[in-house]
Amino acid sequence: QVQLGESGGGLVQAGGSLRLSCAASGTIFSINAMDWYRQAPGKQRELVATITSGGSTNYADSVKGRFTISRDNAKNTVYLQMTSLQSEDTAGYYCHTFDMRSRRHYWGQGTQVTVSS
Predict the structure, then answer these.
(1) Does the pLDDT of residue 29 top 90, yes or no?
(2) Of the candidates 55, 37, 35, 62, which has an alpha carbon nearest to the alpha carbon of residue 113?
(3) End-to-end CA distance of the chain, in Å?
(4) What is the mean pLDDT of residues 5-28?
(5) What is the mean pLDDT of residues 5-33?
(6) Are 20 and 12 in contact (CB under 8 A)?
(7) Are the CB atoms for 98 and 7 separated by under 8 Å?
(8) What would the pLDDT profile of 41-74 be if each residue is shown by its tens digit?
């Protein structure tokens, strides 16, 4: 059973930084692409950033230049470094993967990021 566990959320002032972590277990982490999504109250969940098994990255336009996704395959962990945070970044942030071995989607429980202006 694949499990994803996020951490690192919290309350931060506008302009500040946070680093989210997502630890994975029960999967061959290195072969899976990993994603960060976010969902604000009353809005649809949106894709924030993706990192492939090879380390290629892609970002939503709204976070380009401010957020950086990275992975440490030795620790089975993916990170989201967030800088220059804005009130619009306030949301629950969720880790996601499509597990290549089981061919199923998995989500973490989410971590809340609140940016005060």
Answers:
(1) no
(2) 37
(3) 40
(4) 96
(5) 95
(6) no
(7) no
(8) 999 999 999 999 999 999 999 999 999 999 999 9
- The pair of structure tokens assigned to 3 is 């499990």
Nearest to 51 by CA among 113, 10, 98, 85: 98
Nearby residues of 99 by Cβ (< 8 Å), 6 or more positions away: 2, 27, 32, 105, 106
Query: Residue 116 has which token pair?
Result: 């005060």
**Element containing residue 22 per DSSP (H, E):** strand 18-25
For residues 51 and 29, give the distance between their C-alpha atoms in angstroms, rounded to a whole number. 12
- Does residue 1 contact residue 27 with C-beta atoms inside 8 Å? no
Per-residue pLDDT at 60: 98
